[in-house]
Specification:
Distance between the termini: 57 Å
Structural class: alpha/beta
Helix content: 40-55%
Oligomer: single chain
Number of helices: 19
Largest sheet: 8 strands, parallel
CATH topology of the domain at 90-407: TIM Barrel
Shape: globular
Number of strands: 21
CATH architecture of the domain at 90-407: Alpha-Beta Barrel
CATH superfamily of the domain at 90-407: Trimethylamine methyltransferase-like
C-alpha cells in the first residue's frame, strides 16, 4: 500500500469535510425523564387546571373568540377550557412546518424529533471584547452578534440575543432590531414586538427585503416570540394583541411560557410541569380560536430560581431535567417543541460555564427538543451575552449532534452498526501482517473523514506544543476567532436599493 500524499491528506483534513459527521437537525428523543404514566398524569392535571380553574384577565376580543370555539366564560373573570377543546386544538395544530431563511438553503424543518440549536434572550449587558467587563448592550453589539452568528454552522436560527439599551424609543427599538437581523443574516430569524401597532410597519420593511408588498407573507423568514400567558394562569393583553397581529400578517409564532419554579409555579417538578403545560396549552387554544392550524412553536420553557436567594438559576440540574421533560411532553403530544437551555449562570468563560452549558444543552437535545433556545452566547443568567461564548457554544453543539447521531444508530439498529466494511476483517489482517498498526490504512482514513468530528477551537496538543503556541485558554482562542470574523465578515444581504427604501421609511440608527 502506498503511504505517499501526506500533504494532500493534511490539506483535505484541514478543509471542510465533504460529509459533515454531525450536522444540525439530528434526531433526539433517547432521554426520557418521564414514564408513560408520568406523562398521562401531568397531561390530565393540566387538562383539569384548564377546565376547572381556567385563565384570568382575558381580553374581550379573545374571550369572544374562545367562547366561539367552545370555551366557557364563567362570568367571574375567568375562561374555562374544556378538555375536548384542548385536545381538539392539539389535533388541529400544525405538527411540522418550515422555518424559512431568506436563503432557502438555510431553511429548517421544525417538528418531529429533529433537534436544532438557536438563540434567544434579551440580555441587557455585553461582555466587552476589549475590557472583558460587562457593560450595557448596544445596537452596534446587536449588529456584531448577528454578523458573528451568521458564520456559525450550528446556530440554526437567530433571535436577537440582546436589547439595544441605547435606543430608548420602543418603536425605534423594534424597527432597528428587525433591521439588524435583515442586514446581517439570511438564516431564519426571530424577533419580538413590544406592542401590536409595531407589527404592520415592520412587515413593510420585511416586504422590501422580500421583493415587494405581500412578498414576506408568502414565505415568512422571521418569526415572533410572544408570551401571551403570564404565570400563574392569566393572559397578558399586550402580548395577546401582538399574537392577533402576527397571525394576521402570517408571521409564525413561538408562544413562550416561562414560569419560575417556586415563584410563579409550584416548586415540585411534577407540579411545575403540570401548570406550565396547562399554560402553554392555553396559548395553543388561543391560536386555535383565532386561526386553527396556524404555525406555532409549543415553547414550554421551565425556569428555575434558587429558592434560598430568589436568583435565577439557568444552569442548574433542575433546569436540565425540567426542559428535557418539557421536550418529552411536547413530542408525546406531537407538537413542535421549544425549550430553553445552555443558560449558564457563570459570568466568565470558566469551568462553571462549561459544566452548566454542557449539562443543560445535552439533556434538552437528548430529549428531542426541536428548537433549543438560549443555546449560544448567553451568560450571567441571561443578563449577559458574550461574543466568545457564541463561538465556543457553536463547537459544543457539534459534539452534541455527534452524540445524537451515534444514539440514533444505536436505537435504529438495536446495537452497534455492523456491516462487512465496519467489521474491518481485511484491515485487521493487513495491519497484523504488515506494519502492526492501523494509523496509515485506508480503512482508518475512510472512518476518520466519515465518522469523527474534529474541533477547530478545542486544543488537543500535548502541553509543550500548547505552551509553544502561546498557551492560550479557550476564552483566548475564541476571542481571536471573534476578532477575525468581525474584522472580515460584512455581508451585503440587502441591496443598495433596498437599504435606501428602508431608510427612507424608517429611522435606521446603525448600518
Amino acid at each position: 500500500m502506498t503511504r505517499g500524499g501526506r500533504k494532500a491528506r493534511l490539506a483535505k483534513r484541514a478543509a471542510k469535510p465533504a460529509i459533515d459527521p454531525c450536522p444540525p437537525g439530528q434526531v433526539g428523543g433517547a432521554y426520557k425523564p418521564l414514564s408513560n404514566a408520568d406523562l398521562q398524569d401531568i397531561f390530565q392535571t393540566a387538562l383539569r387546571l384548564l377546565e376547572h380553574l381556567g385563565l384570568g384577565e382575558v381580553p374581550d376580543r379573545l374571550m369572544a373568540d374562545l367562547v366561539g370555539a367552545g370555551a366557557i366564560d364563567n362570568n367571574a373573570g375567568r375562561v374555562l377550557i374544556p378538555a375536548g377543546l384542548a385536545t381538539q386544538a392539539i389535533k388541529n395544530a400544525v405538527k411540522t412546518f418550515v422555518l424559512h431563511g431568506r436563503d432557502p438553503a438555510r431553511s429548517i424543518e421544525v417538528g418531529g424529533k429533529r433537534v436544532h440549536f438557536g438563540t434567544g434572550g434579551a440580555a441587557v449587558q455585553t461582555l466587552d471584547l476589549d475590557t472583558q467587563c460587562y457593560r450595557p448592550a448596544t445596537l452596534a453589539d446587536l449588529h456584531d452578534f448577528t454578523r458573528l452568528q451568521d458564520t456559525l454552522q450550528n446556530v440554526s436560527w437567530y433571535t436577537r440575543c440582546c436589547i439595544a439599551t441605547d435606543v430608548p424609543d420602543i418603536y425605534d427599538l423594534d424597527v432597528n432590531t428587525a433591521y439588524a437581523l435583515l442586514a446581517n443574516t439570511t438564516k431564519p430569524t426571530a424577533t419580538a414586538f413590544t406592542v401590536a401597532a409595531h407589527v404592520a410597519p415592520i412587515v413593510e420593511m420585511l416586504d422590501i427585503a422580500a421583493g415587494g408588498p405581500g412578498a414576506f407573507a408568502k414565505r415568512p423568514f422571521m418569526k415572533a416570540h410572544i408570551s401571551p400567558i403570564i404565570s400563574p394562569m392569566r393572559f397578558g393583553e399586550d402580548a395577546v394583541d401582538v399574537a392577533y397581529e402576527c397571525i394576521k400578517h402570517n408571521i409564525p409564532i413561538s408562544c413562550i411560557t416561562a414560569a419560575q419554579a417556586g415563584a410563579t409555579a409550584p416548586a415540585t417538578l411534577a407540579g411545575f410541569l403540570a401548570q406550565s403545560l396547562a399554560e402553554t396549552l392555553a396559548s395553543l387554544v388561543m391560536v386555535h380560536a383565532i386561526q386553527p392550524g396556524f404555525p406555532m412553536v409549543f415553547s414550554n420553557w421551565p425556569l428555575v430560581i434558587d429558592l434560598r436567594t430568589g436568583a435565577f438559576s439557568g444552569g442548574s440540574g433542575e433546569t436540565a431535567v425540567l426542559n428535557a421533560a418539557s421536550a418529552q411532553l411536547s413530542n408525546w403530544l406531537g407538537l413542535p417543541s421549544g425549550v430553553a437551555c445552555s443558560m449558564t449562570d457563570a459570568k466568565a468563560i470558566d469551568a462553571q460555564y462549561g459544566m452548566e452549558k454542557g449539562l443543560t444543552s445535552l439533556a434538552a437535545a437528548l430529549a428531542g427538543g426541536n428548537l433549543i433556545y438560549e443555546s449560544a452566547g448567553m451568560t450571567a443568567s441571561l443578563l449577559g451575552a458574550s461574543f466568545e461564548a457564541f463561538v465556543l457554544d457553536d463547537e459544543m453543539h457539534s459534539h452534541t449532534y455527534r452524540v445524537l447521531r451515534v444514539l440514533r444508530v444505536l436505537r435504529v439498529l438495536r446495537g452497534i452498526e455492523v456491516n462487512a466494511d465496519n467489521l474491518g476483517y481485511d484491515a485487521i489482517v493487513e495491519a497484523v501482517l504488515g506494519e502492526g498498526h492501523f494509523l496509515g490504512g485506508q480503512h482508518t482514513y475512510a472512518a476518520m473523514e466519515r465518522d469523527y468530528f474534529y474541533p477547530t477551537l478545542a486544543d488537543r496538543d500535548e502541553p509543550r506544543t500548547w505552551a509553544a503556541n502561546g498557551g492560550k485558554d479557550a476564552w483566548a482562542v475564541a476571542h481571536d476567532k471573534v476578532r477575525e470574523v468581525l474584522r472580515s465578515h460584512y455581508p451585503t444581504y440587502l441591496t443598495a436599493t433596498q437599504k435606501a427604501a428602508i431608510k427612507k421609511r424608517f429611522n435606521i440608527l446603525h448600518d
